[in-house]
Amino acid sequence: MSLLQEEREIILGNEYVDTFDFAEVEDFVKNASKELFISHHFKKKNKMLVQPRGGFPTYKKQFALYEFFVDANVDVLPLTIDSNTRLNDYGTAKKMLRLSEDNDVDMLNGYPLVNHGYRTTRKMMTHFNKPVSLRHGTPDARLLIETAIASGIFEIEGGPITYLLPYSKNFPLDKAFLYWKYVERVCANYSKLNEPINRESFGPLTATLVPPCITIVIQLLEMMLSLEEGVKSFSVSFSQSGSMNQDIVMGAVIRKLSKHYAAQIDCADAAINLVYHQWMGAFPTNKDYAEQLISISTVIASMVGADKIITKTREEATGIPTKEANAKTVANTQYSLGILNGLPNVVDQEEEEILTEEVHSIMEAVFNDPADTLWRKVFNSIKNGIIDVPFSPHIINHNEMITIRDAKKNIRIIERGSVPISDRCYAYERAQCDLTKDTTSIVNDIIHDIGIMQ
């Protein structure tokens, strides 16, 4: 028995898991409908896929949500996981699920997949026969992804950096890398049986003034960590930044460099897709403005030429969106995409050149770390501040990089900390901003920039 299989049997021996039948699950994946695989839909490339967010605690409410989405012409169904499951607290999730079912009140903020189990959940997935994306935010997702794939969920979002630095304060980063290595290997193994399992990185990070170079570097590194374990379908992603120009440049650079760095590790045969998140920062409370913001982000996604767009709703600022609001935004986004039908993409050459240079500089510094494996090089680079995510709560993150918006709303680096961008690029970034103001004024500008869409 392989070491991985030994570890899998230990993980799946969890007290909250019904008996896991490896042979039956393998047989299910082998014979599963191609329609369940997002990698199959990406290959068809007919149109940009539209995916909302959404997760309810009970099977009944999740099923009803999917019915609404299907009526709204959704391309990809979401399965958002509750926060107890994200923290591997399956005991509390089980109690809250029971309370939710008994009282018809949502006691969880998502679907407790482990507690429902794969036999139950699979009935829902195969009933709708559409690709489902697992959205979760879990540093240790080993049990969760085993249950997801056994249920017929063949896209797994997240990664050791993107699901840790924005969400966690103390969870050990080195453990996260090893737990996600397990995820990659399991996904790679199942990918040999049918269409590939698609892995998707979480580009928005903290969704708070993250400069494009940091977003792209982390996307490329999570892609490489996944591909080196044998994954054959991967989605890089980023979210609306607040500057249309910057988004178009980011889209061009991330597409070009993901192919470049995949080839560097002899994985040019892997399918790399691009995902665009509608605005992930604080939403306007005015619902009409919220709808305008959603429409604009759909236009940008079309200009970027994204393979998939992840939608928001007009209720974003006021609480968890209803199934009606979620379905409405899917229908509106599909309508907008139908009108746009692709747009000319004119990339700002100077911005593209600067951003490309910044990304190459940081990537080179990561690769030059003396550690013997890529994950250790990345770990050391975060520990040393070579990769620095603004507003990350994690204790390992340096938080020395300071960013602000320029007059055109582009995110600019005004303090680089230990991030090794060249003096030329740094001077360019700073030159776009008015730095003659006093510190208080600059801090006030940053606070304003965080709430720019409100």
Structural overview:
This is Methylaspartate mutase, E subunit. One of its GO terms (molecular function) is methylaspartate mutase activity. Keywords: Cobalamin, Cobalt, Isomerase. It comes from marine gamma proteobacterium HTCC2143. Pfam families: Met_asp_mut_E (PF06368). The protein is an alpha/beta fold and 454 residues long. It has two domains: 3-340, TIM Barrel (Alpha-Beta Barrel); 349-450, no CATH class. Helices cover 49% and strands 9% of the residues. It has 18 helices and ten strands. The chain has helices spanning 3-11, 22-31, 38-44, 59-71, 83-86, 90-103, 113-116, 118-128, 142-151, 173-191, 212-227, 244-264, 287-304, 323-340, 349-367, 374-383, 423-431, 439-450; strands at 49-51, 77-80, 132-135, 155-157, 198-200, 233-239, 271-277, 308-310, 402-405, 411-415. The protein has an eight-stranded parallel sheet, with helices on both faces. A two-stranded antiparallel sheet has the order 9-10. The longest helix is centred in the middle third of the chain and has 21 residues, at 244-264. The protein is globular, with a radius of gyration of 21 Å. 51% of the residues are buried. The mean pLDDT is 96.
Keywords:
454 residues, alpha/beta, 2 domains, 8-stranded parallel β-sheet, two-stranded antiparallel ribbon
SSE topology:
Blueprint: H1 3-11, H2 22-31, H3 38-44, E1 49-51, H4 59-71, E2 77-80, H5 83-86, H6 90-103, H7 113-116, H8 118-128, E3 132-135, H9 142-151, E4 155-157, H10 173-191, E5 198-200, H11 212-227, E6 233-239, H12 244-264, E7 271-277, H13 287-304, E8 308-310, H14 323-340, H15 349-367, H16 374-383, E9 402-405, E10 411-415, H17 423-431, H18 439-450
Parallel strand pairs: 1-8, 2-3, 3-4, 4-5, 5-6, 6-7, 7-8
Antiparallel strand pairs: 9-10
Helix pairs in contact: 4-14, 8-9, 9-10, 11-12, 11-15, 12-15, 13-14
